[in-house]
Amino acid sequence: MHNWARSPLLLLHILLTLTFSGATTLWAQSPTVISQEIDSLLQFSTKVEEKDSLYLSNGDRIAGELKTIESSVITFDTDYAESDFKIKWEKVTGLRTNQISLIILADGDRILGLMKADSGQAEILTVNGTIRVPIDQIVDLHPVEEKFWKRIDASLDLNYNFVMDNHLHQFGINGSVQYNGEKGVMSFISQNVSIRQDDVDQIRRYTQTLNAKFYLDHNWFSTTTLEFTANSEQKLRSRRNLKQGIGIFIHRSNKWYWYFSGGIGYNSEFYTDDEQTQRNSGEFVLTTEANIFNQGDLDLRANLSVYPSFTERGRWRSTFTYIMKYELPLDFYISGNLTFNFDNRPVEGASRYDLAAQAVFGWKL
User: Which of 153, 221, 280, 288 is surrounded by the most beta carbons within 10 Å?
Assistant: First the structure.
């Protein structure tokens, strides 16, 4: 193997070893540290109201259980409603909860404590005292759950399109599972599309992504990704891509976020061209993502990743994804997804680019 091919593998191995050893320490120590803080905070929580309470701008008070605060939306469970009650932060004047929660602020700080909010200000009671912050600085809040399954978010969506003129059938199924920990998140995402059309070869695309993201200080994070991809339009039978990087949130609030990340990756590709081409290469990985989620029930997200190779001179790839998602009652949603893939040096007979659009209907757990 060429020396350039060995270099990215060696460097990637070192980075992965450091990341996973550090991450293992963080996650291994987390239950003990969290348990000690919880025991201390429980002494205070017994003095708080038995049920959580929401105070609305119209004067109403709702009693129940605070589930989460995400994307500027409070999810609240009540005894008299079949589904969770959801309301924007801007329509709430006060909040009281007796649940010990993990609270994430706009500056990246992660605080474990009991929170109450009133008149635009939040007070967080911690083992080290009381912290006061403006409500709009609270990005996320998750009660600390003892049960594993309560820390899991999942979604599943389907799409089917049919065009009579050329008997085009497009079927897709996408799914995701995410575990939310105190120090980071781990997720698995699966995307699958199949297109059949008269007098045209069947087109198949799939992407399976396993990602671990660990939060660092001051809005920095490290990320490790293992991705499997196939795309018949680009004659790509299989691509295995291992990526390691570090990133920072340029802006993070309860209305939108924007981050940049950079790193390196090792890419192994197998093609279905006449030569049965196989490529192994090292790549730089540059990614930026923006998500706007405080637009009523509308969520907009765009992601751009660029992969300039440092072992194949002059070659670069890119992937752009745009998702427009609209929330429906009972945790259902509809969305429009657009994906664009580009490779400036495809194998013989393959397309340089591939564009896919989907209209989907889904459900979030």
Answer: 221
3-state secondary structure of 151: helix
Residue identified by tokens 């659009």 is 357
Residue 101's DSSP bridge partners are 113, 143
Residue 4 in any domain: the answer is: no
Which tens digit of pLDDT belongs to each residue from 9-55?
555 544 454 444 444 444 444 444 444 554 555 555 545 456 788 88
Residues 6+ apart with CB under 8 A from 222: 19, 23, 213, 214, 216, 244, 245, 246, 247
What pLDDT, on a 0 to 100 scale, did the predictor assign at position 137?
Answer: 85
Element (H, E) at 257: strand 256-271
Q: Answer whether residue 7 is part of any domain.
A: no
CATH code for position 171: 2.40.160.40
| pTM (2 d.p.) | 0.78
Q: Which residue has the higher pLDDT, 72 or 262?
A: 262
Place of tokens 């105070």: 55
Q: Give the integer Cα–Cα distance in Å for 295 and 261.
A: 26
Together in a domain, 207 and 321? yes
Mean of the pLDDT values across residues 114-118?
A: 87
